[in-house]
Amino acid sequence: MSREFKPHPYQHDIIDWIATHRRCAVWASMGSGKTVSALTALEGLALVEDVYPALVLAPLRVARITWPDEIKKWPHLNHLRTSILSGQSLEKRKRAIDKDADLYFCNYDVVPWVVEYLKEQGRPWPFKTIIADEMTRLKSFRLRQGSKRAKALATVAHEYESRFIGLTGTPSPNGLKDLWGQAWFLDKGERLGKTYSAFEQRWFRKGFDGFSLQPLANAQPEIEDRLRDICLTVRGLPVDEPIYNNVYVDMPIPCRKLYDEMEKQMFTEINDHGVEASNAAVKTMRLLQLSNGAVYIDENHNWEGVHDAKLDALDSVIAEANGAPVLVAYHFKSDLARLQYRYPKGRALDANPQTVKDWNAGEIPIMFLHPASAGHGLSLQDGGNILAFFSLDWSLENYMQIIERIGPMRQKQSGHDRPVFIHHIMCRNTVDDMVLDRLQSKKSVQEILLEALKARKQK
């Protein structure tokens, strides 16, 4: 249902920032209405300059569902003509890009095809504006290396279009090093260095392991100062923090033996299957699997179960929910298989838009979702306010994004006056504790950065 858009004060700030900065980034907390604010800014600009057609880049599900839904939601945007390039066959994609539209929605993986197809057709770059939603997808860009999608976008980012708008709530999920690639698309290296090597040499040193990067003492304030004129940080509505609860379980003694063997010897045997780790990274994954209760025994991801301690703990979480729907985040395919067997009434989040609608309508009592595919852009707050992490991974961005699918900001915006509960189901004295500690340490770096990059008008 369409409703009148009445911007909050901070959304006015976003609109004004985009209107007065041809190339800029907006770092706004998740659920703060970045999408409608960006589109409203373009609508205002369209009165005085050519901003359409615009190419909107986003994760797949967001490109296919979230952005088109925003057009339908707001009366002042309903007239915009749209075309979806994501999730289409090759022939449908060609028809979609040839369609006369104002907004073209495209996931990042399709960017190389868009650039190459237009080149093959001998057509000039048609887009007057690029909006890079979840701009951190461009953090790996390097002039001579980096992802194919970022390199393809780089060939047109500074040559043809007139505006570039970056949107994200997590600009530096892994620290300051994530910022160079994103900033390059705004200023072609003017502020942080023409190359990543120059950026690295100026503000970082090698860690003790010889591979990681450690920021110098002056790095953060200097980087913040250089980006302040093109990056707007917005916090959004004041909301309560989620209520966090760590649910600890004890690994059964026989499983603890397997865990200790893998940790010390990088090898163990499970039901006559030898399980080994070729390096420290693989060992960590094996330890996480053991903590969850099932381990992959071959390269085809066949697995063997070793304990149900976390499933038993999840039983308690679901029971305490007293019938309220529960989201359950998992990491490995073996986790999902065991969850589906244990809770046959549960459903896994898939690419079908109806699944999200069913969840928000209260028709799914338990929904299983993987953070990497269920983070950006999804609105799940109408369906519930309880999230249980059956397992964790190392990605802070995935962790923060999945929490905000039902987070306090989204709850408040949707008129739900209720707290958000986050349960971490943790296996005691295992790598689970290390992962959570690591996530928390990364988060502190990002929060400092976001606080420092307040709008210029506040100074």
Binned strand content:
15-25%
Number of domains: 2
CATH architecture of the largest domain: 3-Layer(aba) Sandwich
**Helix vs. strand class:** alpha/beta
What top-tier CATH class of the largest domain fits best?
Answer: Alpha Beta
Largest sheet: 7 strands, parallel
| Helix proportion | 40-55%
Task: Describe what this molecule looks like in 3D.
With 459 residues, the protein is an alpha/beta fold. It is 41% helix and 18% strand. It contains 17 helices and 19 strands. The chain has helices at 9-20, 34-45, 60-73, 90-98, 111-120, 148-157, 179-187, 196-203, 219-227, 253-265, 280-292, 309-320, 333-342, 353-360, 396-404, 408-413, 431-452, and strands at 23-28, 54-58, 82-84, 103-107, 129-133, 163-168, 204-206, 213-215, 231-234, 243-249, 267-270, 273-276, 294-296, 303-305, 326-329, 347-348, 366-369, 386-389, 421-427. A hairpin with a 6-residue loop joins strand 13 and strand 14. The protein starts with 8 loop residues before the first helix and ends in a 7-residue tail after the last helix. The model has no long low-confidence stretch (mean pLDDT 88).
